[in-house]
Write a structure and sequence with these properties.
Elements lengths: L4 H26 L2 H7 L3 E6 L6 E2 L5 E13 L9 H8 L3 H14 L5 E8 H8 L6 E10 L6 H4 L2 E3 L2 H6 L8 E3 L2 H5 L1 H4 L4 E7 L5 E4 L15 E3 L3 H11 L4 E7 L4 E8 L12 H10 L8 H4 L9 H11 L13 E2 L5 E2 L9 H7 L2 H12 L7 H14 L21 H7 L23 H12 L3 E2 L5 E4 L13 E2 L7 H13 L16 E7 L7 E8 L6 E7 L9 H14 L5 H9 L10
Parallel strand pairs: 2-10
Antiparallel strand pairs: 1-8, 2-3, 3-4, 3-5, 6-7, 8-9, 10-16, 11-12, 11-20, 13-14, 15-17, 18-19, 19-20
Length: 603
């Protein structure tokens, strides 16, 4: 039987009405979503920030800790009458500052919470709670604390993220803090922990009335993971003490493991300057300082390595067969072919060991030319490419791959570079300065220390790194356990090591000032030419000669000869580490009292 059209319309209306009634019943009685959304008008969501993980030195001493702090927050529409003078007094700010921050908060949103003052102390927070400030509350945070006041450039600092940072890292929200440099940046995901959330019921005056739904929707923050650093805090402190007033760097490595024992850059800064409400002002002061204390020279400065580089040229010559340990070359106060390369007065002729001991420039000019001019390669370009490949195998001209994100690779020039620079017209005399670590060569102090470790190991190294242990893991990144071998056979290292030992321990050696009785220090001085002022002083060493435990590189800008300032510093670092004492206080005084004239940019 066919229903009348009016009846069909009537049934459709009834059905639609029934659906609406059932939906309203579901929404209001069964589904809690809308109730929760309605409750949001009286709910306060507060981020629970976890404490960042601590950082220890290799001996278990604190380098970085987290201490309690609070942010003062206000919801403008909930702010009632309050004693502005008292609040300003508690916070250590002025009344106009309080009013200004409230106006800014209100212009942002009258309903949403805004942070007015960050990182107030626990003591100030307790004083705040003694009085009634309707619409104001505090949020728990932590700030970094530095018991030793050392290693600012190494440890890095924590700063507030900006919009660009958030865009790159969606985990973060406005008001969050993250590691901005150093270990804090490199291990941010380990150290930061995981944020939680706390939901509270509040009345119309913003007064908390308890946890919403008995805390069912709260999440607890997860503290950051602690890290044990490879750094020796006492050795780091000594290095910074010896570098005070100077521009340069000290890097020390344990050769067998690649663990960095010291990474000091000077000038540096007190890491506490980058904590608290004065952090912004202090940062700008450091940023404007022409000596660039925020710049980590240990991993960022591509210095000319100077005569420390001669050991690489000697080893390449041995491997290439253009040189034997007994091969001798004359030195007439320098290399006299072409424009020549000057040298200091010493006995002549010398074999390879003697050339390393006396740091003879002429000797390594002969070696370099014999390598790149070798006829078996057919052209200067091919010979030079072979030489450059050897150099890169020692970790030069590229990033070593350390766990320091700001590491730079230095520079090893290519044949293409010279072809372009000289329009294809160049030869081994054109690039002769490379024989003594000058010219276009650039190496960071980290790379120079790694060279010392490589020679100590007779031809291999592990990637230098600054973290020894992450406390929730069984091991660190596997790449730090891998052995990296140079292209030079280990058998060729003995005459070079002998020359480095003689440089420190025998008459005529260039590094006698570094000698310490019983320590068997092997070292190589360097005086790096500087077109902008006095030459730079550099020195690398390792000790003991057999089964070495430490390799050190020191670079002091405008320090002149390698033995003048770099060698004494390296020697003191080595002695302190191997013997836990210093027997030459007069040498410490000599280093501390040395006055070095720097150009205007470094003052």
């Amino acid at each position: 039987m066919k229903l009348p059209r009016a009846r069909i319309l009537q049934l459709a209306v009834i059905a639609a009405f029934a659906v609406i009634v059932l939906r309203l019943f579901y929404i209001q009685v069964i589904d809690p979503t809308y109730k929760i959304n309605a409750d949001n008008n009286v709910l306060r969501y507060t981020v629970q920030y976890p404490p960042r993980g601590e950082v220890y030195d290799r001996n278990g001493e604190f380098l970085v800790q987290s201490k309690e702090a609070y942010d003062l927050v206000a919801v403008p529409r909930e702010v009632g009458p309050f004693d502005t003078v008292r609040l300003a007094s508690i916070l250590g700010v002025t009344v106009p500052q309080v009013r200004k921050e409230l106006r800014k908060a209100a212009s942002f949103s009258r309903r949403r919470p805004s942070v007015l003052f960050k990182q107030i102390s626990k003591e100030d927070k307790l004083r705040f709670e003694e009085y009634s400030f309707p619409g104001f509350y505090t949020v728990y945070r932590t700030v970094r604390s530095y018991p030793r006041k050392i290693a600012g450039n190494l440890l890095g600092y924590v700063g507030e993220v900006d919009d660009k940072f958030i865009e790159r890292n969606p985990y973060y929200r406005s008001g969050d803090f993250a590691g901005m440099s150093g270990i804090e940046k490199a291990y941010e995901e380990v150290l930061r922990g995981k944020k939680g959330i706390k939901i509270q019921l509040v009345d119309v005056h913003g007064i908390p009335k308890g946890a919403y739904a008995d805390g069912m929707y709260d999440t607890m923050p997860e503290p950051g993971v602690a890290i044990t650093c490879t750094i020796d805090a006492r050795l780091q402190a000594l290095a910074e003490e010896l570098l005070a007033g100077k521009v340069g760097s000290v890097v020390a490595i344990e050769p067998a493991t690649g663990e960095i024992l010291v990474m000091a850059s000077s000038p540096s800064y007190d890491p506490d300057e980058m904590v608290g409400r004065n952090r912004g002002n202090n940062y700008m002061k450091l940023l404007r300082d022409p000596r660039r204390p925020l710049y980590n020279r240990a991993v960022m400065s591509p210095y000319p390595p100077g005569s420390t580089f001669k050991v690489i040229n000697g080893l390449i010559g041995l491997q290439e067969g253009v040189l034997t340990p007994g091969t001798t070359y004359p030195c007439h106060m320098g290399y006299t072919v072409g424009r020549g390369v000057k040298c200091h007065n010493h006995s002549s002729p010398l074999d390879l060991t003697g050339a390393v001991q006396n740091s003879c420039n002429a000797y390594f000019c002969y070696v370099l030319r014999n390598v790149v001019d070798n006829r078996k390669y057919g052209s200067i370009k091919n010979g030079f490419d072979v030489w450059a490949d050897y150099v890169r195998s020692f970790g030069y001209g590229r990033k070593l791959g350390s766990d320091f994100l700001d590491e730079r690779g230095g520079n090893v020039p290519s044949a293409e570079y010279y072809n372009k620079k000289y329009r294809g017209s160049w030869n081994s005399l054109t690039i002769i300065s490379l024989s003594i670590g000058q010219g276009e060569l650039g190496a960071t102090p980290l790379q120079m220390a790694n060279l010392a470790a490589t020679v100590a190991n007779r031809g291999h190294f592990r990637i230098p790194h600054v973290v020894k242990r992450i406390h929730d893991r069984d091991s660190i990144d596997a790449r730090f356990y891998e052995e990296h071998y140079t292209k030079v056979d280990p058998k060729h290292f003995d005459p070079v090591v002998e020359g480095m030992w003689r440089a420190v321990h025998q008459p005529g050696g260039t590094a006698g000032i570094a000698r310490v009785e019983g320590l068997d220090i092997c070292g190589k001085t360097g005086t790096a030419q500087n077109p902008h002022g006095a030459d730079h002083s550099t020195f690398m060493c390792f000790a003991p000669r057999n089964n070495p435990r430490i390799a050190v590189s020191v670079y002091v800008e405008n320090g002149r000869f390698g033995a003048t300032i770099a060698a004494p510093i390296a020697s003191l670092i080595t002695e302190q580490y191997l013997t836990d004492t210093i027997t030459r206080p007069q040498l410490v005084d000599y280093v501390k009292n040395m006055q070095i004239a720097y150009p205007a940019y470094a003052k």
